Amino acid sequence: MIEAHSLTKRYGPKTAVDQVSFTVRPGLVTGFLGPNGAGKSTTMRMIVGLDRPTSGSVTVNGKVYSDHAAPLHEVGVLLDAKAVHQGRSAYSHLLALGATHGIGASRVKEVIEMTGLDSVAKKRVGGFSLGMGQRLGIAAAMLGDPSTLILDEPVNGLDPEGVVWVRELVRFLASEGRTVLLSSHLMSEMAQTADRIIVLGRGRVIADAPVADLISGATVSSVRAVSPQAGELARLLNSPDATITSVDAQTLEIVGLTSAVVGEAAARAGLTLHELTPLKGSLEDAYMNLTADSVEYRTTAASAGAASGGNAGAPLATDPSHSEVSR
Ligand SMILES: Nc1ncnc2c1ncn2[C@@H]1O[C@H](COP(=O)(O)OP(=O)(O)OP(=O)(O)O)[C@@H](O)[C@H]1O
């Protein structure tokens, strides 16, 4: 469990993390999202004692990181996969790391096997590819069999097989009751991996909600109906609750009515439907809408993309007892 209370970090005049409060719960994969410079790495560094909060606090399993007598057994961390002695082998790197906690060769071999590094375990880390370095970083994080894992961009540089492996690994670790905090800029991957999402923007928490609530709260669902009698169907569905857009001569996009309502209305009036599709927003749509005002480093093309990201201005309805989505 990770608990942050009004966590704040200033670097001179720059407030990198601003009064951030959240709880990362056991048994779930929690995704940590935010544009470049939003404060994710700074927050993660404070969680594991690499940076001191200017004010506020953050605990792991009930204690400030530095108060844990054997931190490797409490929290496993992948922050910078390249921060490894390049001349050492993967095996001796892990053995040296484990020695600080009385962790021996058998556990080192276990995590090497678990991360698929067997064939390169005795090779110099300096010659590792980005993906192999990531696997070694994950092996190091798992070394102490910790109940909490913090993985910053673990799929960075991994091939598709490696991406799926990380997804299955973190889902498995959460199913064992561990706490997993995961950052990634890959939205489709995050949507498949995380249960909950915390979004940071300019150092503040913009959203903290289950994935489904985040998407439904920050995007608009609609229905696409294709009919050779689209004009008649549009007249039939016309009501104050419905916003109907004619996409082409046969295609309507309807916001405010469910596909069941549209289908039943068409059937009652004897209108032919060639297609009736509920359209849901993606995590990427929700993320773009939520962070549209928080992106610090933006190219002109990305700016246009975010502004036209479809569902901007969507209603943000969530259950405040389980989630928080604000702008
Ligand atoms: N040591 C430092 N000194 C001064 N400013 C810093 C320092 N570390 C971070 N910052 C600033 O704090 C802000 C948050 O940075 P941070 O690296 O935490 O963001 P991030 O969300 O992890 O971004 P990214 O997705 O690019 O990794 C940025 O504006 C960054 O420039």
Automatic annotation (TrEMBL):
Gene3D superfamilies, per the entry: P-loop containing nucleotide triphosphate hydrolases (3.40.50.300)
Record Pfam families? ABC_tran (PF00005)
A GO molecular-function annotation:
ATP hydrolysis activity
Identify the keywords attached in UniProt to this record, alphabetized.
ATP-binding, Nucleotide-binding, Transport
Q: Does the keyword Plastid apply?
A: no
Q: Where is the ABC transporter domain?
A: 2-227
Please give the residue ranges the record annotates as the region Disordered.
304-327
Q: Which domain of life is it from?
A: Bacteria
SUPFAM superfamilies, sorted: P-loop containing nucleoside triphosphate hydrolases
Please give the family membership noted in the entry: Belongs to the ABC transporter superfamily.
Name of the protein described by the UniProt record? ABC transporter ATP-binding protein
Upper taxonomic lineage: Bacteria, Bacillati, Actinomycetota, Actinomycetes, Micrococcales
